[in-house]
Each structure stands twice: as C-alpha cells, then as structure tokens.
C-alpha cells in the first residue's frame, strides 16, 4: 500500500488499517488495509454499500470495537498523536472530547431511563470538569444551538418524549458539548424520514461552518453528500476503492464501482432520461473474501487479471486515486465497446 | 398513571373471586368432604342430616359459597376437620413464623443476587462470570431438601453446632440467641433456594443491557466502565428486578413449605403438609386461596412498582 504524503493539514490520518472479527472459529475480515485521511475543517464523506466496512473502520479508529475484534494499523495519527500508542485510558479521554461520534439509530442511542439533561451534563462534567449548575446552563445553550426549542423544559424529559429527528439532534448536541475537533457521523439520517434527513444534514453543515470542526460523514447514499462534502471516499468489501474531491468523484469517477454507484442515484435535476441502473449481484462475503478485487464478480469490465490479487492504486491527481487495474481511459474505451 | 393503577386493581378483583369459586368447587366436589370427616358410617341418616343442617351443608351450593366467602372476608376461615381448631387462629401463629424465616432469607438472596448478577453480567464470559453462572446453574438443579439434609448432617449431626428441629428449645422461648441458633440452617437453605434463579435473572438482564446501543454510545463519549455500570446499566437492570419483588409476595406464606417441614419449623409448611396428609380440606383450600390471592396482589404490586419507576409508563394515562 502506498504512503499518503505526510501533511500538516490532516487532522486524522490512518495507514493500513485492518480489522478482523473472530466468531465461532471463523474470521470476518471487515476492513482489509485501508489508508485514508481527513483534513482540517473539511467534510469527508465515506460511501459504500451496506457491509462495506464503513462503520467498522471508524469504530476501529476510536477504539470502540468489541473484544472479539482485532485491529491493526501501521499508524493512526490524530492531530499528530498516534492513537495506537495511547493507553486505553488516554483513548477513552479522547473519545467524546476531541473526536465525537454520532450513530445511525437515534432511537436506541439514549438510555431510556435517563433524562436528556443527564446525558448532556454527564459529558460536560466528564470532559470539561463543569459543576452541575454550569453544566446545565451549557446543556441548554447546546440544545438551542442544535435547534431544539424550549431547551430548559426539554432537559428534564426522557428520550421517549422525543421524536427520532429530535433525538438525533440531542446526540449531535452531546457531540458538540466538548467542541470536538472531529465529528464522525455514522449514517446520522438513515433511520429518519426524508424531510428530517435534510434538516439534520443542514444542521451538520451549519455547525461545521460555525465551529470549524472536521466531519467524517458516513452514508450509503451518494446523492446526500454531493452538496455537503469536500472529499469522498468510496469503500467496498473492506477496501477503499476510490477517493477524491467531490467534483472529481461526481464528474470524473475512475473506478467502475464508483461509476456504478453514481448510475444508481436518481438525478431529477439532470434532465437526462437515462435509466437508473442498480448494481447487479451482492456484496462479497467477508468471511472468505476473494483474492482479487472484491468488486470483480459484479463488475462489467472484469477480466481474469482482476481475480489475481488486490489491484494497486492508480493516482489521478493529488487528491484522487482508484484501486483498479484499468485506467480511466481504458475503462472509457471498454464502456463504449459494451454500449 | 393513577387511572391505570385503578384499572389494574379493578381487574384484579374478579380474578380473586374466580379463584375462590374454583377453590370452593374443588373442595365441594372432592370425594371426601367435611361432612364425611364429622360423621361416621355408623350414624343414622337423620343424625347426618342434622349435622349437615348445623353446618349449613343442606343449603343450595350458591348459598354455601357465599357463606364461606363471607366467612373468609371476615377472617373466619372455618375449622379444621381433624383438630376442630379455628384455622384463622392457627394461621395467626403459623404465618408470622413463616415470615420470620422467609423475609430475611429472601431479602438476603435478593441483595446477594443483585451483587452477584451485576458482577457476572458485566464480566460476561470472564472468570467471575463463569464461576457465578456455573454455580447458579448447578444450584438451580439441587433440591432444597437435599441441601438441608447436607446442612443437618454436617452442622447438626457431625459438628453438633446447631439444633436440628424447631424454632425454639423447650423453655427458651424468649431467648433471641436460641432462636438464632435454630434459625441459621433453614435460613441458609432458603437463601440458597431463592438465590440461583435470581442471580441468573439479574445476570441475563445485565448482559442484555450491556449489549444495548446506548452503552456503545456512552463509550463513544468517553464514559468509563464504572460510569457505564453505575450511572446507566444499574438503573436499567434494577427496574425489572424491583418488579420481581411483587412476584415474591406469595412466598411469605408458601415460600418455605419443604424447608420448614424438613426443619420442623412451626410455620405454614408443616401445617399445610399435615392438612394434605389428613385430607383436611378446609385448611388446604384456605392456604391455596391465600397464596393465589397473594400471587394476584403481587402481580398488581409489580405493575404499580413498574408504573412508579419507569418514566415511559409513568407518563401514560
Ligand atoms: N461485532 C461484529 N462481529 C462480527 N462481524 C461484524 C461485527 N460488526 C460488523 N461485522 C461485519 O463487518 C462487516 C462490515 O460492517 P460495517 O458495519 O462496517 O458495515 P457498514 O459499511 O457500516 O454497513 P452499513 O451501511 O449497513 O452500516 C459486515 O460484514 C459485518 O457483518
Ligand atoms: Mg454502518
């Protein structure tokens, strides 16, 4: 795997992350050597189908994996500190304070027997050493910031008195409590209905503008990120298939998987009457992953070569690279032939 | 919430009535009844009729039931066929004796179960869990009479440390120390009987809570193991456990039948067993009515406790 150039504008950079689960004698290789980075003040989108390893990758970096998971990496640098060399206690103190994470399902993310206020003030007391009264005041301010009305009253309510969208706002508020440098949002809108989804994403964008924090936004919906992210990384079968600036991914995607993903998004505004093309087939099993490119069996360009070993990255620009044996030109030529 | 509780109380009443009807019917249709106990085959039919009339057995069934029920409600539980003693009078002595034994044993088992269950559940598949859960599994399968025999054999017979039967030695009825010496073995047996199922309940409840999403979220926000345990998981585990208290209500009467019998503890247990052996129907039925009523009341109590403690239900109508 090639080195990504060391650079001071990276808040988080990870080299060669592997995560393997061991269950009942089988091992599931959920992440298989991913190197990536997130820049200061940027929104990085991580996209890929269900099961591609997006959540596992991020949880691995935060040290949130269960005991049956083994995480290895050459290096994981967060603001020039190597996370791998931290003690578990140091990692714990970093979580929620410097890197916060918001999860997919807001309905189950809060303790049903604790008030919203308890959830928020605990974080403030823990990481910012506030006393009860100051923490309460701060909690009210943060709730206001995420657009919850009459926060004073809401503070004493229990999670079941909040709708899904409101709970996600509470979780985002929890994440904001300590003004983290990096927010990882793991499909924060998947469980919510469409209008609420847009509101939450807008909120994230607004908060990013206000606080200047970096956001890693995990989603399996490329359409969602177009207007939001600066860069996109595309994952599949535990591998990083392609990464690039948002424009690069949308206007000149290099990897066949990225292209397939793009063809699967509805584009009402584009006006072209091209049919949506779902990607045929299913994601490969991670228990016994194929030796070669994991996308090969679903790829219309696949040839024998693809099944022999994981391809090297082709670098297209300072910011864009893709893991495919074919260059973009070769793919274009083949595509014309196929059509 | 008040409305819900009132509704629950109102539905409990017909249940209790139904139980009394069932018990009465069972008693009535039993092959051997109170009249048979009071008469002998040699008596003339006239005499038998007279006795029937005297106790009201010549009235229609419905009236008999109402009289019986009315008696129960007024604390008149009828009379033992065998000893002719007032059942209410007997129980007034027996039930407190049983409570003296069951209450401390259940309380001890309950507290120990919470501690051990939380400990095991929070260390799932680690050494502590394997030991606690393993022993609980075995203990569930050990019959309490066997365990009490073992205690009697070791503490009572071999080491001669403790008295084997009864609640007091003759002539030492007022001595607390003497009571305690009699109390220890049945107490240990009962605690040991109540403990394993409760440990398993607390453990599995703890394991479930630890696998909930909110625990992962708390970890993601830097909560330590201790904070997760004591500020989050504990409360969620204790809720279903508090409600279990209500279910234990009926144990106060019938919770120690075997143990009491083995140790000759003068509680409800030996009284009940003797009544069964002597076909003393009125006693058996009254105890059944009492314990089933306590089951229903206990359930009611559980629901009320749940209402008070769980914010999700507290809000509802
Ligand atoms: N605790 C675990 N034990 C075993 N395997 C796991 C565990 N957690 C995740 N996996 C496996 O790791 C793979 C990647 O899962 P991951 O949750 O990262 O997918 P994802 O890309 O986040 O998908 P989604 O969009 O559905 O959230 C999956 O195949 C999953 O089965
Ligand atoms: Mg996921």
Question: How is this structure best described in words?
Answer:
- Chain B: It holds the Pfam family BPD_transp_1_N.
- Chain B: Keywords: Cell membrane, Membrane, Transmembrane, Transmembrane helix, Transport.
- Chain B: InterPro entries: BPD_transp_1_N, MetI-like, MetI-like_sf.
- Chain B: It is a multi-pass membrane protein.
- Chain B: Residues 95-302 form the ABC transmembrane type-1 domain.
- Chain A: It holds the Pfam family ABC_tran.
- The complex is a heterodimer of chains A (339) and B (317).
- The longest helix of chain A has 18 residues, at 194-211.
- In chain A, a hairpin with a 2-residue loop joins β1 (10-23) and β2.
- The two termini of chain A are 34 Å apart.
- Chain A is built from 11 helices and 13 strands.
- The radius of gyration of chain A is 21 Å and the shape is globular.
- Residues 1-6 of chain A have low confidence and may be disordered.
- Chain A folds into 2 domains: 1-98 and 181-267, P-loop containing nucleotide triphosphate hydrolases (Rossmann fold, 3-Layer(aba) Sandwich), CATH 3.40.50.300; 108-177, no CATH class.
- Chain A has an 8-stranded mixed beta sheet with strand order 7-8-9-3-10-11-13-12, with helices on both faces.
- By secondary structure, chain A is α/β, with parallel strands linked by helices.
- Chain B is an all-alpha fold and 317 residues long.
- Chain B has a domain at 94-307: MetI-like (MetI-like fold, Orthogonal Bundle).
- Chain B has helices spanning 2-29, 34-38, 45-55, 61-73, 87-122, 127-141, 144-158, 176-210, 213-220, 225-247, 251-254, 257-263, 268-277, 281-309, 311-314.
- The mean pLDDT of chain B is 88.
- Adenosine-5'-triphosphate (ATP) binds at residues 21, 23, 28, 30, 48, 50-56, 66, 187, 220, 286 of chain A.
- Residues 54-55, 186-187 of chain A line the site of magnesium ion.
